[in-house]
Structures are given as C-alpha cells and as structure tokens.
C-alpha cells in the first residue's frame, strides 16, 4: 500500500498492545507500517517479541540520563533516524515533558485502561470496582502535556460483572484494548480523527462494546 504512515511503538513492558498493532500492520491494506519499537527498559519482554516479528527494536534506558529532557533528546534522535510519522504509546510508563509532547502534537497517541475522563492515572480497575460502575473499558487519545487528558479518539466498553476482581476486569479490558487500538491508529493514519478545538468529532466506530 502506498502512503502508509511510519509508526514507532514505545513500550516499557511485555508489549501485548504492541503485538496487536504489529499483527494488524501485517495486512498490506493497513495504513500504518510499524518501523520501530523502542523501550525505556532494556529488559522489557516486548523487545524480544518485536524482534521475533521482524521489527527493529531497541532500548534507551532512561536511567542512563541525567534529566528527562536528555532522555527525550536521545529518543527524538532515534525517532528521526527511523523517519517516524506517528508515535504510539503502548504501556510506556514515562511521563513526557511538555516540549516533547507539543513537538508531536496530533501525531502521538496513547491507550488508557479506563473510559476517560473517568479514572485517569494508575489502578484503574481497582478504582472502577470501588466506584461500583457497571461499564468500564479503555480509551485511545492524543497525548497532551496533561496526563490522560488528550482529545479522545475512540473507546471500548466492557461490562463489570458480579464477583469481578481487579484481575478479571483487567483481562476483559485488555482484550478490548487489543481490538480498539488497531482501529484507532488506522483512523489517525487516514486523517479521520482530526482535533477540532480540544475534541475529536465523534464518528461511527468510535465506541466498541466488547463481551
């Protein structure tokens, strides 16, 4: 497919969402080519998974840098070397500085395990159970300087079932993430998720309901 966008996936751990995106990109009709996987943790299991899939994978250890901005400068250099159009965060457990985020405005996305704006941050499944919500899920959004505050691109909802533990709910949400992220990334690559003001206009397929 001509004109495929070149994407780098940033991870910190096992990379299950990364694997779903790589699988989607195997289809020549998919509008994104995964050209690199970069982790801030050299021991991240996802790096080996990426290499097994034939994707260039490397680590930039954030602990080796004196400051966050120094780490981001090294990351930016590698993104430029891979000629990246889009940056995709998939379990990347680092907060970015405002200048870095702004330099990738509209070109960097993240997936969060909750239906934003509910439950930003960590421990989303435990907090959802404590709140007694009946629907939980995940959100793909553009990255902005505020944590988990960027314009929402798409969401997937899952039921909260009687007797659910946080682990039960996490597994159900992760299954939904693997379905949603490739759809949302494709929308961004095709230019179908433009930001109007501070929001993305709602379109068919923005919300999935997953069993």
UniProtKB/TrEMBL annotation:
<keyword id="KW-0658">Purine biosynthesis</keyword>
<protein>
    <recommendedName>
        <fullName>Phosphoribosylglycinamide formyltransferase</fullName>
        <ecNumber>2.1.2.2</ecNumber>
    </recommendedName>
</protein>
<dbReference type="GO" id="GO:0005829">
    <property type="term" value="C:cytosol"/>
</dbReference>
<dbReference type="Pfam" id="PF00551">
    <property type="entry name" value="Formyl_trans_N"/>
</dbReference>
<feature type="binding site">
    <location>
        <position position="68"/>
    </location>
    <ligand>
        <name>(6R)-10-formyltetrahydrofolate</name>
    </ligand>
</feature>
<feature type="domain" description="Formyl transferase N-terminal">
    <location>
        <begin position="5"/>
        <end position="184"/>
    </location>
</feature>
<feature type="binding site">
    <location>
        <position position="110"/>
    </location>
    <ligand>
        <name>(6R)-10-formyltetrahydrofolate</name>
    </ligand>
</feature>
<feature type="site" description="Raises pKa of active site His">
    <location>
        <position position="148"/>
    </location>
</feature>
<dbReference type="InterPro" id="IPR004607">
    <property type="entry name" value="GART"/>
</dbReference>
<dbReference type="GO" id="GO:0004644">
    <property type="term" value="F:phosphoribosylglycinamide formyltransferase activity"/>
</dbReference>
<dbReference type="GO" id="GO:0006189">
    <property type="term" value="P:'de novo' IMP biosynthetic process"/>
</dbReference>
<feature type="active site" description="Proton donor">
    <location>
        <position position="112"/>
    </location>
</feature>
<comment type="function">
    <text>Catalyzes the transfer of a formyl group from 10-formyltetrahydrofolate to 5-phospho-ribosyl-glycinamide (GAR), producing 5-phospho-ribosyl-N-formylglycinamide (FGAR) and tetrahydrofolate.</text>
</comment>
<dbReference type="InterPro" id="IPR036477">
    <property type="entry name" value="Formyl_transf_N_sf"/>
</dbReference>
<comment type="pathway">
    <text>Purine metabolism; IMP biosynthesis via de novo pathway; N(2)-formyl-N(1)-(5-phospho-D-ribosyl)glycinamide from N(1)-(5-phospho-D-ribosyl)glycinamide (10-formyl THF route): step 1/1.</text>
</comment>
<dbReference type="InterPro" id="IPR002376">
    <property type="entry name" value="Formyl_transf_N"/>
</dbReference>
<comment type="similarity">
    <text>Belongs to the GART family.</text>
</comment>
<feature type="binding site">
    <location>
        <begin position="15"/>
        <end position="17"/>
    </location>
    <ligand>
        <name>N(1)-(5-phospho-beta-D-ribosyl)glycinamide</name>
    </ligand>
</feature>
<keyword id="KW-0808">Transferase</keyword>
């Amino acid at each position: 497919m001509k004109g495929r966008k070149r994407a780098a996936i940033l991870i910190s751990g096992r990379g299950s969402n990364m694997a779903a995106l790589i699988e989607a990109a195997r289809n020549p009709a998919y509008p994104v080519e995964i050209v690199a996987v970069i982790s801030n943790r050299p021991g991240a299991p996802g790096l080996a998974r990426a290499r097994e899939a034939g994707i260039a994978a490397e680590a930039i250890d954030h602990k080796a840098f004196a400051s966050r901005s120094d780490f981001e400068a090294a990351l930016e250099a590698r993104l430029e070397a891979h000629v990246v159009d889009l940056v995709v965060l998939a379990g990347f457990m680092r907060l970015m500085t405002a200048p870095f985020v702004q330099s990738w405005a509209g070109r960097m996305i993240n997936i969060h395990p909750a239906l934003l704006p509910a439950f930003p941050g960590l421990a989303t499944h435990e907090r959802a159970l404590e709140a007694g919500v009946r629907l939980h899920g995940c959100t793909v959004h553009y990255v902005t300087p505020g944590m988990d505050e960027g314009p929402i691109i798409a969401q997937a909802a899952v039921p909260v079932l009687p007797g659910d533990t946080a682990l039960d709910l996490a597994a159900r949400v992760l299954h939904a993430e693997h379905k949603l992220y490739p759809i949302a990334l494709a929308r961004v690559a095709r230019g179908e998720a433009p930001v109007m003001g501070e929001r993305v206009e709602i379109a068919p397929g923005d919300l999935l309901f997953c069993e």
